Every structure is written in C-alpha cells, then in structure tokens.
Amino acid sequence: MSRNLVRPFFPVPPAEYQQWYFAEIVRAFSVYLEQMQNPGEGRNTFIVLTALQTDDVGLETGALFQQGGFVKITQANTPHVRGSSATGSVGTVTVSTT
Fold it and tell me: What does the alpha-carbon distance between residue 3 and residue 9 come to, in Å, rounded to a whole number?
C-alpha cells in the first residue's frame, strides 16, 4: 500500500571525503526515519479486525481492543484493566411483611 511519500535525495558521493556530503547523508536518513515512524493517513471502506485483546494491557496509546462487544481505543488516562471485579456490603437489612 502506497503512502505517497517523497523519497529523500541521496547525493552522489565525491571522490574524497567532504563534510557537506556527510551532512547531506545524515539529513537524508533523518528524513527517511521521520517518514517511516509517521503512521500516515488511512481511509478504508472495509476492515476486519481479528483476535483483538479484551483489555488494554501492554498496548500503546491509540491501539484498538474490544471489551464487552465494543471496539475501544487505548488512552493514557483511561485504563481498562484485565479481570477487574468487586463486591461489597454494608451492614444487614431485615425486611418483614405482615
């Protein structure tokens, strides 16, 4: 799938070492790394997601998971922990009817 990236320019090397050439090589690799780390845009008509996790444990922010039949997005400030449950009680209640 194409992301319409512009390939970085790698200059033709000179016969002897030149500082400007080395700087251009470093710049070109920096551009390449920036392009590869940028996820880019996505537009889909149809998508199938299989084997999604049921919690966000170990997922990076922005990753998808499913919980209770809903697809959710991992957020840094909203945890969806694995296997959370709770019970509680306060006192006793007696009900009598006459």
Answer: 17
